[in-house]
């Protein structure tokens, strides 16, 4: 590769000639074919070894250098295929967390964005992205119940980015001077104990500080306790602080608790009015659960999709919370979660588009985007400068799935979970489902010794020692599941909830296993194999002793 013409071969053609196109498509075909050869429906990973001995990353660091000579296409396909080997893959037994498979429309959309490689910063550089983004903002505003003529938004870096910009707006609304002068020292933000840690990072990065994140207790359905919110807001105000931001999680990551935005808003407004303060900005962290708003206008009496009774009840229960999404000042749809598109395709929406002007840059401060002399679409309120047009992927998915496609998929997740819960508790008296009140795509469960269960534990009837021993018992399960995850891939968490105990004032974190339906290929007929797998794990750990010594 000595000449510029040689290097040109590494790019898509300039003139659209058939020969170059063919070579390009062949490369893609080879890659897809290689990946297909690694697939097996009974495995939650692609074939091949992906063990990582202790010095794996260290060895890579020691040996990786940019090659002097260009490589060959065949070698490249080979090395990319090698990366695929042993990779987690979203087959029927892929049941861990919210790690979805990217759908074909999602991939094609992302591919289109890459082919064009426009910059979504400005419509002169990225007209396709600007158009697709405008469309998906309006489409999803309608789903959330926002007025698309007043709302606005943009695609951003994850549910985390949405929580972050919600906070930027909250600060700017409370103190418009903050963007010039910095954040006042008395602002406070609130979320439930079950909220995603995004808010902690946002509090740090905006300069508010993590100590000003106030955690609100949750109720038995893992949703925010409004009475505790009122109390804690009052405490903050009594001490000279000002509540500016509340994150209401609509679909928590571990247990699908759904905060009630309506009651949270009225509780918060009540407190603020009493002190003659303006309402705080409410961000619905609907990154995960917001997609269930696709059922907000589903006619459950007509039931056009023939959803079974138990599933319909679950969906109705979820929709009864999702219908309040429009009361939030901002919200998020993480399309790379239940929206079935590749990473990273998150959509942040604001109810009132004027809010974004509070954090916008002055035209004079962004001169190289034409100083806004031409082009109609500038996104200088985003924290990113250059932006990928991930809206094209979102648009492609929305067009090809339609509301109905999403409804079928999301209903199947609920159905599999409800049936799994039943099979699980029927088969194992010692296992409790720890989110029994939350229908949704996730089931959390915990193995007890015969005399205990989740209800007793939640009520504070167990000792610290018993809870700790139960944690160890479940950790042993995690170990078993972890060793065998190439077959069935479950998730776990060591802080599902904090429970009281009988013999101490401490709140103790509880360890649970999670089954997250995220693969379109998981159906109710796969439940027996999953139950067998859990039985093997329980069997393998049953004779272990889980005694602990608790220092007194
Ligand atoms: C996943 C998730 C986030 C973080 O989203 P990213 O896209 O990973 O940045 C925030 N909140 C909730 C409720 C989530 O489920």
From TrEMBL:
- Pfam families hit by this protein: Pyridoxal_deC
Q: Which domain of life is it from?
A: Bacteria
Record's InterPro entries? Answer: PyrdxlP-dep_de-COase, PyrdxlP-dep_Trfase, PyrdxlP-dep_Trfase_major
| GO cellular component terms given for this protein | cytoplasm
Q: Name one GO biological process term.
A: carboxylic acid metabolic process
A single GO molecular-function term is: aromatic-L-amino-acid decarboxylase activity
Report the Gene3D superfamilies cross-referenced here.
Type I PLP-dependent aspartate aminotransferase-like (Major domain)
- Keyword Lyase assigned to the entry: answer is yes
Question: Which residues are reported to carry the modification N6-(pyridoxal phosphate)lysine?
Answer: 337
Keyword set for this entry? Decarboxylase, Lyase, Pyridoxal phosphate
Provide the cofactor list for this protein: pyridoxal 5'-phosphate
Q: Which SUPFAM superfamilies match?
A: PLP-dependent transferases (SSF53383)
The UniProt similarity line reads: Belongs to the group II decarboxylase family.
Q: What is this protein called?
A: Glutamate or tyrosine decarboxylase
Source organism (scientific name): Salipaludibacillus aurantiacus
